[in-house]
Amino acid sequence: MNIGNIQFGDRPLFLAPMEDVTDIGFRQLCKRFGAAMVYTEFVSAEALVRSVKSTISKLTIDDAERPVGIQIYGRDVPQMVEAAQIVEEQAHPDVIDLNFGCPVKKVAGKGAGAGMLQNIPLLLDITREVVKAVKTPVTVKTRLGWNKEQLVITTLAEQLQDCGIQALTIHGRTRSQMYTGEADWSLIGEVKANPRIHIPIIGNGDITTPEQAKQAFERYGVDAVMIGRATFGRPWIFQEIRDYLDEGQRPLTNSEKLDILIEQLHINIERIHAIKGKDISENEYRGILHTRRHLAATPIFKGIPDFRQTRIAMLRANTLEELEGILSHCREKYFEE
Predict the structure, then answer these.
(1) pTM as predicted
(2) Digit-coded pLDDT (tens) for 111-133
(3) Rounded to 5 degrees, what angle do the CA atoms 200, 206, 209 make?
């Protein structure tokens, strides 16, 4: 599979762009464990054009994580064009991705993200003009439609291809579904089977196991699989799937997985300290907060009897010393082999 001149090999796995999740440290971990392509958190075109410092910081990428895509969202043609040019000139990503899929109210409710599915002519205008304005390959991520009465993706895919995009990611839900219910891959498969579609089709939604990823490739014929929420507390999921697809190396132990989570904790603290500066205790706390989502979601603690109080203590820890002590106790009690 190729996007422009980028070659990904057979059945690649991509890390989905996720706000407050796919920061540079997490992207690098996922890359290490087999993500063929990673994406930044989404970037507001309006904020980028206004040079908002926190938004500009999202453009920081490292050569070690390439190929990497930067995703932008907005609802204004000139702003989206200017934002794409800023991204290209300042960050030099491998791909510029247009977000027409975010369902959250503060984005879609204002007409951006999945809100663009209610204004297809504008969505196509933005896509067409961004493609013309930059040399970087432009891709799109979107959903099946606004709701079940407006399942537009089979027609929209052809229209987007005609605008010049070089790959299309489809999340198998409507905007109205948000993240509830089951992702419907049948329409993703229908788009891929369309003989008029020649760009890569990337499937996204509810891929949580190696078996599901294999089914996505074999049943629906997608060129790549994108994984989102299943990476929380589990950046090694890419290795698990890759090993299953390729019949590869031995699985990681829970103790090794715990090492990865501790490494992620340190990465988050160090990254925040580099940004914020001198207040070490405050930076430490912010790093812990940023890691809690992953500690709460990681499967390595699932099914442990009477773990509730330990989980509460872990998620209430305010210092690195306290949290590492709890995790060390977990290793000795549950994961020593």
Answers:
(1) 0.93
(2) 999 999 999 999 999 999 999 99
(3) 95
